[in-house]
Specification:
9 helices, single chain, 4-stranded antiparallel beta sheet, alpha+beta, 4 strands
């Protein structure tokens, strides 16, 4: 009987405040959607880092013939300079940073160049002697790229030191910026959702003030009095969370997997699995959001 009464009161409250309930659903939906986007963005960054950071290499290019780099002064690196770089990379001093080293000769560099640009006009004027000797260095910790750069940049016979991370790091930064923006917008919308849920619960409590007084006089518990109002807010918030989850599934399916993944085939993207991970988080956040807002409102308007 108690459960039937509580559910009856919940139905009455939702019917009386249909417009406000819809507003709660929409605001909760938008706020949790931003939070979900922020969470998925973080997962995307972590997935890309785990995929690429172990594969990232640092390339040390030695001076080639007529190299215009200031450190080369149009002079090709000598065998002694190449040997000095090779010995230093394989030294005990660098072993804590360097995992392995692959040396690419002029001939190998020329073969790779032809594979990439063999059909272009400029390849006709390119010779083996124009190619630089290079070292591709895989690091123990890819985050320690700066140590390799400091050690070899400006060294005799070294033209430049390049980190492959420089290519993909801007993409990480864009995703991180989008995550922070979504998180900020989500925070603002969560505050708006709390205020709106509080207002909705307050209006519902005020409209049933007489019933609340009667229940208090007959000895009803605080939880029994508060339950219908809290369930109203929770149901509206959960509806918003379900809409947010549905939108995230659609976004990942059509935008990420349907558009981004085929366009950027060199990396992997998040999928439905990550959205499933976010689903309980968003639903629990919606319930917590509703309970916090309800508790703040009911403490005053039901005088319990």
């Amino acid at each position: 009987m108690k459960l039937r009464f509580i559910l009856s009161e919940v139905g009455k409250g939702l019917a009386r405040n249909r417009a406000m309930s819809v507003a709660v659903i929409i605001v909760t939906y938008v706020s949790l959607l931003f939070v979900g986007v922020a969470g998925l963005s973080q997962m995307q960054v972590m997935q890309m880092k785990s995929q690429w950071y172990d594969k990232i290499e640092v390339s040390i290019y030695m001076c080639a013939t007529d190299d215009a780099t200031p450190s080369c002064n149009a002079t090709e690196a000598t065998e002694a300079q190449i040997s000095a770089v090779r010995d230093k990379l394989n030294s005990t001093e660098m072993s804590q940073y360097v995992k392995n080293v692959f040396e690419e000769s002029k001939e190998e560099a020329y073969e790779n160049y032809l594979k990439l640009y063999g059909d272009s006009t400029i390849s006709e004027w390119t010779t083996v002697d124009m190619m630089p000797v290079s070292f591709r260095v895989k690091l123990v910790d890819p985050e320690q790229y700066s140590i390799i750069k400091e050690e070899f940049s400006g060294a005799a016979g070294v033209s430049q030191v390049k980190d492959q991370r420089e290519i993909i790091e801007p993409l990480f930064n864009v995703i991180d910026a989008a995550r922070l923006m979504a998180l900020g917008l989500g925070g603002v919308m969560i505050i708006a959702a709390i205020l709106l849920i509080s207002t909705t619960i307050r209006l519902s409590a005020m409209s049933r003030e007489t019933e609340t007084q009667i229940m208090r006089y007959v000895g009803a518990s605080n939880l029994f009095i508060q339950a219908p109002f809290m369930i109203e807010g929770a149901l509206a918030a959960i509806a918003g969370a379900i809409l947010a989850v549905g939108t995230l599934f659609a976004g990942v399916h059509f935008l990420v997997q349907g558009w981004l993944a085929p366009s950027f085939s060199w990396t992997s993207f998040i999928g439905a699995t990550q959205v499933w991970i976010m689903t309980p988080i968003l639903i629990l956040a919606a319930v917590a959001l509703a309970l916090i807002a309800s508790a703040v409102s009911l403490a005053k308007y039901t005088k319990v």
